[in-house]
């Protein structure tokens, strides 16, 4: 049971097998955290922007950990302002009314922790040296899917690699499939031939703190957030790619500057670490699923707690 704070427009999408779907992404929030929830088909059309501030009850949601923790609601498993939880609904509406102006993408804490139960439990920020304790074993669920472990680390980007940092993707909204150029068109395995394409970043980079250095990767949104924080929010993916060796206006020095500009700017990285098997060989992989600017007052309190518990 939670309160809706934001929403996205309804979009149409197509599965790998060609089935058409309609979906809408809502942001659900309460005092313990916030999480994205995807509604499908009839529910996506039924619940819209007019529902902001109302209380939602969801049953048997599918939990996803790709690129961030999120929920996917099943058919006929969504209720707004449920009578069965009237007291809880009134409490949530009151909380939302008092805190609506404070809600942002970083507060309340995004619920990126695997296995979160909605109790507000949060992985503490650890040092890079301690982060190597996460994701050291191959763990799988009952369906054979590899599981990850989550942690937070306050660190500084030191090197962002320019080796294959992006790929060209399908321009259809909501589709991130890689496209292959065939003459004057780009072919997507889902949406067929397209007259254009869009660059998307999957970037690998090294971070450091007072305890050491580590490598991790991030997806498009997080990479652009780092680039744009250094460039004061003026860059688009096309702006960056056109300066690369394969771009429309190659400029090695300008390209180099873009990749160096985010260095030594502090971020708190929400990370997923897991051991994956490639050709029988286990290899640890760390992905930054979300990043946000440090709240130094809160981080100071975290350090005090660590000192007192030492």
Outline the structure in words.
20% of the residues lie in helices and 37% in strands. The longest helix is centred in the N-terminal third of the chain and has 14 residues, at 86-99. It is of the alpha+beta class. A hairpin with a 5-residue loop joins strand 6 (62-64) and strand 7 (70-72). It is built from seven helices and 21 strands. The model is unreliable at 113-121 (pLDDT under 50). The strands form five sheets. Strands 1, 2, 3, 4, 5, 6, 7 and 8 form an eight-stranded mixed beta sheet that branches. Strands 12-18-19-21-20 form a five-stranded mixed barrel. The chain has a three-stranded antiparallel beta sheet with strand order 14-15-16, with no helix packed on it.
Q: What's a quick, concise take on this entry?
A:
This protein has helices spanning 42-46, 86-99, 128-131, 220-230, 237-241, 252-260, 296-309; strands spanning 2-7, 11-14, 20-30, 33-40, 55-58, 62-64, 70-72, 78-80, 125-126, 139-140, 146-147, 149-160, 166-169, 180-182, 185-188, 192-194, 198-201, 203-209, 212-218, 267-278, 281-292.
């Amino acid at each position: 049971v939670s309160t809706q704070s934001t929403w996205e427009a309804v979009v149409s999408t197509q599965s790998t097998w060609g089935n058409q779907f309609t979906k809408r992404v809502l942001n659900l929030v309460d005092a313990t955290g916030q999480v994205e929830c995807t509604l499908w088909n009839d529910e996506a059309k039924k619940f819209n922007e007019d529902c902001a501030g109302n209380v939602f009850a969801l049953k048997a949601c599918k939990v996803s950990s790709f690129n961030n923790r999120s929920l996917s609601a099943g058919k006929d498993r969504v209720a707004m302002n449920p009578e069965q939880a009237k007291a809880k609904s009134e409490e949530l509406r009151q909380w939302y009314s008092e805190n609506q102006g404070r809600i942002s993408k970083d507060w309340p804490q995004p619920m990126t922790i695997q296995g979160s139960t909605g109790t507000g439990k949060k992985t503490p920020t650890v040092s890079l040296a301690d982060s190597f304790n996460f994701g050291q074993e191959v763990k799988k669920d009952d369906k054979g899917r590899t599981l990850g472990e989550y942690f937070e680390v306050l660190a500084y980007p030191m090197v962002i690699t320019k080796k294959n940092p992006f790929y060209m993707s399908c321009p259809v909204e909501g589709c991130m499939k890689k496209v292959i150029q065939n003459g004057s068109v780009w072919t997507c395995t889902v949406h067929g031939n397209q007259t254009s394409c869009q660059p998307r970043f999957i970037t690998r980079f090294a971070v450091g703190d007072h305890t050491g250095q580590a490598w991790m990767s991030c997806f498009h949104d997080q990479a652009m957030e780092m680039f744009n924080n250094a460039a004061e929010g003026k860059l688009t993916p096309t702006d960056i790619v056109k300066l690369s060796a394969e771009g429309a206006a190659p400029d090695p020095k300008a390209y180099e500057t873009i990749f160096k500009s985010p260095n030594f700017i502090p971020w708190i990285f929400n990370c997923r670490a897991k051991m994956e098997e490639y050709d029988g060989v286990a290899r640890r992989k760390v992905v930054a699923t979300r990043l946000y600017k440090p709240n130094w007052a809160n981080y100071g309190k975290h350090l005090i707690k660590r000192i007192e518990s030492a």
